[in-house]
Design brief:
Distance between the termini: 90 Å
Shape: elongated
Structural class: mainly beta
Radius of gyration: 59 Å
Number of strands: 93
Number of helices: 7
Length: 1426
């Protein structure tokens, strides 16, 4: 059965058994009252301890007879003990005193343990106002085996402290009626009922009734006791308490140490809750049995809740947080004594929405009433504070084992239930829900548990309801009442320094209430923030994570399946402060000095002030061998240093201190160690005291202390600081040289490490005693720590230091100091505070104010900061302060001038800001000028520009220009001196702009001549024109000579260009372009020379270098040539040829040249010295383009052989036989006339001459006479020609190098016949004169192979595979073709032979003759590197 809590009002009964009733409820106004209170408290404690001491005292010691001495023996004994120096009686007294001191320390330890236990529970003993009893932790049901103990615990809160009574089935439980059966416990608000060796008859409903004068509260729980051996009718409901065995972990002793605190997570993130513990005995194979609960529900381990126990740690890891995980988490560990547990709240915030303004995700998705084809899904709505209201929800489903979600409803459902149809029998599915508002769709909720469609019996409590005519929804009868009513009055009370306790009246019409949402906002703000993200079912809630010292307002909303109720009325504003209580105990009592009759003590202030200032301290003392404490002071001590008088020298004393505030006097401190009252006589100083820390950061801190009370034989001259890590006794020196001041900044700390410090005082006699070790300090800055800001007030000009505290309490004060000395009522400084911010203002700052300023915020966890005011910073702020107190109109730009396009001159300045009431004056040469003819003055307050425009700027305008500005209290002045060269330059520019304006009234050049280079390396002189028309004439000139183009320039296009193809040095000169029409004329000049010429050549070189081909090898009769083809080449380009990285100069051996298409370098008469790598480099002034060819190895061998062959062929061509001239092509002659065919032949050696007629050799006879005279003149004379002499005659001239075959057509006609038309003969090529043939046969016509097309004239073959054949001497026709396509075979006369780029000398040859076959040169391309 679930636990229940019932509240009742109590009318007149008053029960006051609370521990807090022993203390004062009001402010201590008089010291006498405080003294009386302390005295009564001390007496009661002394009586208790005296009784305990008497109970623990040993029986009196009786001296046996054999030990008894006579009177003489006693006197002798006393005499001997006197000579020894210390009597036996003194020793026994000392031993007795130590024994009693030890017993007292045992008592003190017990009291200390009890106090620490109270403090660890953090239960506020004092609260403002009266409260009803309230069960913070209610009773829980138990099911146990017979003969096992049952422990029922609950925690009750209320004021005055409630009294708890126990009942069994309504009957009061009286432990006296069954001795040993029941045990009732009550400690610090935790109440328990222990049933030892439970029996079946103990099965009942137990209730705890808490009551105080303002009402009662009841918590109930069921206890079920079972027998192990199968009793009839007994059901085993053992879900909450594990079954115990002989080796069960519950027999271990477990003590919790570090416990998890209130935690904050974010949806989608992860968090870990852990408690460290001590287990006795610590068995590795038997860890303690630990259960985790969320909101009193047992949790099970799974993917969403990972649990681990062992190694002295119990941990719960939540890897994927959702708002369903928010709640009160409890760790319960079963121990030998019963159970030990710890609880803390986990808050889970909404994750950042995917769409701004979208609502938070729904939660607690559950599935009910599962049928064979549908299921009812329900969920809880999200909290909405600043977002738009939720307008509906989408329900999604996916099959188990899949991540594919399908939306179930097309339109949003407005209530938090929806029947999902269309399920398949036996189908396992998950569900999730998304909320919708006007901004968008929320993140999806956590998916539900897996459910399977089944066919259960229909429930009578279900009915179908139509919602607004859109869809049907399955609703229970008790869900038809709408949203719950608005919660009642909200009351907020102080709890801790970061939390507030909020209570409210429950909704009067709950309507199946799911819980409440609590919202908070800072006072003065309109932005509400959610305090919880999961509905909370109770009507009180502790809001954690608030800013200390901030004031908040709270409101509450109720929530059910239909949505959220209206917001409740807002609570009264409340500051986040701890509840008012007495301060905790002081600590660290230390001895500062002793003179034999008095002891000076010091102690540290309480760690918790109780919500108000500690205004009183009270000291008690006692002899170390006694238990009775005596008051030292009746009047309150304000300081934490006090001298205790009236002590006996040689005695040991113990001291304790109590602190008091508005709520009363707190618990006393732990008794100090026994201190001997013995006068200090050492020469070294005593210990420093009151060690404190300031400005704690992750790597540094400042330690402060107070000077020792006992200075020794001489004055204190300095201090040494030592530090050690917490838990270590190995102290190291922080400063090697003693510091004279009482503070020290310690750097080089490890972030997150804890340290302890101590201080030693130094005087002329040495190093004194170390101070008491400081409290451990963590090297970590407080969250949100701010540093001191130094600035100047923009309104008053005051220089100030300011700090905004990251936390503050109601009793906090800002304490400023200079060089860590309090400033007090210094007239040079004034401190003020406003909320969380404090400001220290300098009244008349100067060099005396330089130094280090620090501020400490009291009653906080160490909020402090410091700032060093340097001279440079002070001077800078003094300048700024002076500027604020003596304001000027700030200027962005001083007075300047600019020349406008019409030659007008504009004088202007720009102020940073101008008001509408600003005024100004322009003064020129000490005379004020105003807007009028010749100048215009204006301003623009938005931009801050003030200007004066002078339309006619002449020599009279030379001088000084000044502008004076007044804007409220601020003023400024700026001047411009415009004389001398500066004025001349301005005047020249103004005149130029005036002329430019006039020029642009007619046709003009908007852009003057400039050059560009096209992709084909054509240079274009271009310009842009404007304001032209059809009649506008455009003319080009070079050196004042008009350039006439094939196409007239079209000025109407707006852009005109003059192309200069194949640009070279000859194109240098002055180019001119003119525009003219009836509106005017304009001219643009462009000189192509000097740097301009070099720039053009470089632009051409860039295009040529980019397009340059690889080097190509070509053999010629003169040598080996390397060629580089490019878009355009001219000798003016910066081109360098290199051989083996050495520059080549043009010479007879190495010739360098080129054409428009290529650059070449020829090696004449090559030898082995010319082997190697050749490179051509083309420079455009920025980049260098290089192409290389490796002329070595096989490439050189093949090229050299080809060169020799071509050289031989050229020699043969030069010396072969040929007809030089004299023969006609056609001869027409009348019959009976004489015909003489005479020609000149040439050859070396002298050639042979043979004449043919119709391809038959002509022999010399009387009719036909053949002569050859002098080896030069050959003739054929036919006398008395007849028609038989008509035909085709030819002459064959040849020697050993070759020859030539020339044909002549002879036509004979009779007298009176028309002269026949001439018919030319077909030229033929003669074979080399290798053999003599009477009837030569002309060579057959062979087709000429066509080389394949290529980007370069040669084929890409690095080495020819075969040489071109040499013509055979036995046949007039070559025997085979060259296998290399780039080489041409001997061809007949009809096929032209390509010429060499560098032809050799030619002999005069008739055009119709054909040369003998001569192999042509071939091209080789440089091999491409792999």
């Amino acid at each position: 059965m679930a636990s229940k809590v019932v509240y009742k009002k109590k009318a007149a009964s008053h029960v006051s058994t609370d521990y807090r009733s022993l203390h004062s409820k009001h402010v201590v106004k008089r010291q006498q009252a405080v003294g009386y209170l302390r005295k009564s408290t001390c007496n009661s404690v002394s009586q208790v301890k005296a009784q305990a001491t008497e109970a623990m005292a040993e029986p009196a010691y009786t001296v046996p007879e054999f030990r008894q001495r006579s009177t003489e023996e006693v006197e002798e004994y006393q005499r001997v003990s006197t000579h020894v120096g210390k009597g036996l009686a003194a020793i026994q007294e000392e031993l007795h005193r130590m024994r009693m001191a030890t017993k007292a320390q045992v008592d003190n330890l017990a009291i200390k343990r009890e106090v620490q236990e109270r403090m660890s529970r953090k239960v506020d003993l004092y609260e403002e106002g009266n409260k009803l009893p309230d069960f913070l932790v209610a009773l829980r049901p138990h099911t146990v085996w017979e003969k096992t103990p049952v422990k029922l615990y609950c925690t009750v809160h209320g004021h005055p402290r409630p009294v708890v009574s126990w009942f069994k089935d309504g009957v009061p439980v009286n432990p006296l009626n069954a001795p040993g059966k029941y045990k009732i416990e009550s400690k610090y608000g935790v109440h328990g009922l222990i049933i030892s060796r439970s029996a079946v008859s103990d099965t009942a409903e137990y209730s705890a009734v808490a009551s105080n004068p303002f009402g009662t509260a009841t918590s109930k729980a069921t206890v079920t006791v079972k027998r192990p051996a199968g009793g009839a009718g007994e059901s085993c409901q053992l879900g909450l308490v594990p079954r115990l065995t002989q080796m069960h972990p519950s027999k271990l002793e477990v003590t919790l140490l570090e416990r998890f605190s209130v935690s904050f997570g974010v949806e989608g993130g992860s968090i870990s809750l852990a408690c460290s513990m001590v287990v006795v005995p610590d068995l590795p194979n038997l860890p303690p049995l630990a259960h985790w609960y969320r909101d009193d529900h047992l949790m099970k381990a799974g993917p969403l809740a990972e649990m681990k126990v062992g190694g002295g740690l119990a941990r719960l890891n939540l890897p994927r947080l959702a708002k369903d995980d928010e709640g009160l988490y409890t760790l319960r560990i079963y121990t030998k004594e019963g159970t030990t547990e710890h609880s803390a709240y986990l808050f889970v915030q909404d994750a950042v929405p995917s769409v701004a303004g979208a609502p938070g995700a729904p939660m607690s998705v559950k599935v009910f009433d599962i049928n064979m084809d549908f299921a009812l899904v329900s969920w809880k709505p999200p909290n909405t504070t600043n977002e738009a209201a939720v307008s509906g929800y989408f329900v999604d489903r996916c099959e188990a084992g899949s991540d594919h979600w399908v939306q179930c409803n097309d339109t949003p459902v407005k209530v938090c239930k929806y029947p999902v149809t269309g399920l398949t029998l036996g189908q396992a599915v998950h569900f999730r829900v998304r909320a919708v508002n006007s901004a968008g769709i929320s993140r999806p909720s956590r998916r539900s548990q897996k459910v399977t469609a089944a066919d259960p019996a229909e429930s009578e409590r279900l009915q179908v309801v139509n919602i607004r005519g859109h869809y049907d929804i399955l609703i229970r009868d008790d869900d038809l009442e709408g949203v719950p009513s608005t919660p009642g009055q909200v009351v907020a009370t102080r709890n801790t320094k970061s939390s507030v306790f909020v209570q409210w009246e429950a909704s009067k019409v709950p309507n199946s209430l799911l819980g409440y949402y609590i919202d908070a906002r800072p006072a003065g703000s309109k932005l509400w923030q959610p305090c919880n993200h999961k509905p909370f079912r109770h009507t009180r809630f502790v809001v954690h994570g608030l800013v200390p010292g901030e004031t908040y307002v709270f409101r509450v909303q109720a929530v059910n399946l239909f949505g959220l109720s209206a917001e409740s009325q807002e609570s009264s504003p409340i500051a986040v402060e701890p509840a008012l209580a007495t301060p905790s105990s002081p600590f660290g009592i230390t001895l500062l000095s002793c003179n034999g009759s008095s002891m000076t003590l010091a102690w540290k202030s309480p760690k918790h002030c109780g919500g108000s200032h500690v205004n009183a301290y009270y000291v008690d003392r006692r002899n170390a061998d006694k238990l009775q404490w005596k008051e030292v002071n009746v009047s309150a001590i304000k300081e934490r240093v006090y001298t205790v008088e009236g002590l006996t020298e040689g005695n040991f004393y113990e001291f304790k201190v109590q602190a008091g505030n508005m709520a009363g006097v707190g618990v006393p401190s732990e008794a100090s160690k026994p201190m001997k009252c013995e006068a200090w006589t050492m020469a070294e100083p005593g210990p420093a005291f009151d060690l404190s820390f300031s400005e704690v950061r992750s790597d540094s801190l400042v330690i402060l202390w107070k000077a020792p009370v006992y200075t020794g034989a001489s004055a204190v001259t300095g201090y040494l600081v030592e530090m050690a890590k917490k838990g270590s006794s190995d102290f190291t020196a922080v400063n090697q040289d003693a510091v004279s001041h009482r503070y020290l900044q310690v750097g080089g700390l490890e972030a997150g490490e804890t340290y302890v410090f101590r201080v030693r005082s130094v005087n002329a006699d040495g190093v004194g005693k170390a101070s008491q070790v400081s409290e451990p300090i963590l090297a970590k800055a407080l969250p949100g720590t701010q540093e001191i800001v130094c600035g100047v007030d923009e309104q008053t000009g005051d220089i100030f230091l300011s700090l905004e505290a990251c936390e503050i309490s109601e009793t906090s004060q800002f304490v400023w100091s200079k060089n860590y000395k309090g400033i007090g009522d210094c007239p040079r400084l004034s401190a003020s505070a406003d909320g969380r911010t404090s400001r220290l203002t300098f009244t008349s700052p100067d060099k005396d104010d330089l130094g280090r300023y620090s501020v400490v915020v009291t009653d906080t966890d160490g909020v402090s900061a410091s700032h060093t005011l340097t001279e440079d910073a002070l001077n800078t702020m003094l300048e700024l302060s002076h500027a604020i107190r003596n304001p000027i109109v700030p200027l962005k730009h001083g007075l300047n001038y600019e020349i406008l396009e019409k030659g007008h001159v504009r004088f202007w300045l720009q102020a940073t800001k101008l008001s509408a009431a600003a005024s100004y004056r322009f003064i020129v040469n000490d005379k004020e000028v105003t807007s009028g003819e010749g100048q215009k003055i204006s301003h623009d307050a938005k931009t801050g520009v003030i200007q004066m425009t002078v339309e006619h700027f002449t020599r009279a305008n030379e001088g000084t220009y000044t502008v004076q500005i007044h804007d409220g209290k601020a003023k400024n002045q700026t001047s411009l001196v415009l004389v001398g060269d500066v004025f001349k330059a301005a005047l020249t520019e103004a005149e130029f702009q005036r002329k430019e304006h006039l020029r642009k009234l007619g046709p003009h050049f908007s852009e003057y001549l400039y050059f560009t280079v096209a992709e084909d390396c054509t240079v274009l002189l271009a310009c842009k024109v404007a304001n032209v028309k059809k009649e506008t004439k455009f003319t080009w000139y070079k050196e004042d000579e008009e350039i006439v183009l094939e196409t007239a320039p079209n000025a109407m296009s707006g852009s005109v260009a003059l192309p200069i193809p194949q640009f070279s040095r000859k194109d240098q000169g002055v180019y001119k372009a003119t525009l003219s029409d009836d509106k005017g004329k304009d001219t643009s000049l462009f000189e192509v020379s000097g740097q301009v010429f070099d720039d053009i050549i470089n632009a051409i070189a860039k295009i040529a270098g980019t397009s340059a081909s690889e080097l190509v090898l070509q053999c010629t009769p003169e040598g080996i040539r390397l060629q580089c083809y490019m878009t355009y080449y001219t000798e003016e380009m910066k081109t360098v040829w290199k051989h083996r990285d050495s520059k080549i100069a043009s010479s007879e051996k190495m010739r360098i040249g080129g054409t428009a298409e290529m650059a070449w370098m020829q090696i004449c008469d090559p030898s082995d010295k010319e082997k190697g790598q050749y490179t051509i480099e083309i420079s455009d002034g920025v980049n260098v383009y290089a192409r290389s060819f490796d002329l070595s190895g096989q490439a050189y061998t093949d090229a050299y052989e080809e060169y020799l062959r071509l050289k031989a062929a050229a020699f043969a061509e030069k010396n072969r036989g040929r007809v030089v001239g004299g023969l006609p092509d056609v001869v027409t002659i009348m019959e009976h006339k004489s015909l003489s065919l005479t020609c000149t032949v040439w050859g070396e050696p002298t050639p042979e001459v043979t004449w043919f007629k119709n391809e038959q050799e002509v022999a010399s006879c009387e009719h036909t006479k053949v002569t050859f005279e002098g080896g030069k003149f050959a003739s054929l004379v036919i006398t008395q020609v007849t028609s038989d002499d008509s035909g085709k005659y030819s002459i064959n001239v040849r020697n050993k190098y070759g020859g030539e075959f020339v044909e002549i057509t002879v036509s004979v006609y009779r007298h009176g016949e028309p002269i026949p038309e001439p018919k030319l003969g077909q030229p033929k090529t003669a074979a080399p004169a290798a053999s003599k043939t009477s009837t030569p046969v002309p060579p057959p016509k062979t087709p000429t192979p066509t080389p394949p097309k290529s980007q370069t004239p040669s084929m890409k073959s690095p080495t020819p595979s075969m040489k071109s054949p040499t013509p055979s001497m036995k046949s007039p026709t070559p025997s085979m073709k060259s296998p290399t396509p780039s080489m041409k075979s001997p061809t007949p006369a009809s096929t032209p032979v390509p010429k060499s780029p560098t032809p050799g000398p030619k002999s005069p040859t008739p055009t119709r003759s054909v040369k003998s076959p001569t192999p042509t040169s071939r091209f080789l391309k440089s091999p491409t590197p792999k």
